[in-house]
Write a structure and sequence with these properties.
This is Carbohydrate binding module. By secondary structure, the chain is mainly beta. It is built from two helices and eleven strands; from the N terminus they run βββββββββαββα.
Length: 159
Amino acid sequence: MGLAPLADGEKLYGKKGSEGTVTFTKAIGDNAFVEIKTGADTGFMNGCLGFSESIDGKNYWVAYVWQTKKSDTISIDMSSPVQIAEIIGTETQEVTDADTIKKLTDKIKTEKSALLQVWYASDKTGKQIDPADSASESIEVYIPSASADEALEHHHHHH
């Protein structure tokens, strides 16, 4: 199970740019949250938070997939991507090596931007909605405004 949505005061929203880029004022860290308001007719939509990374001279695409049937907030564990591919020219090859995956996820946790993609959406009768991103009224991405460590530190100072 994912984490519960954060209280408003604890959310640090990413700023959305062109082409689906979402930029934060600090590193993403362990968890991100995708906050989706679906349109009235929407019955399903999915997509990902994606990252293009280079490690040891190789290029990778890492996708954290989300899906929903209604307005919802989906928590994403940055340690557990759904798709990890090495990009070799025009080919992609699935990455299963645990060390490589750990290197990639560790690097992603230090990133300050991600790519928000909507892949597919359908209405309540199951008919495809095209373009898929029109199925939502809004999609925002946020991270915790304070890391858990900072929150704990803060707690201790109140003695």
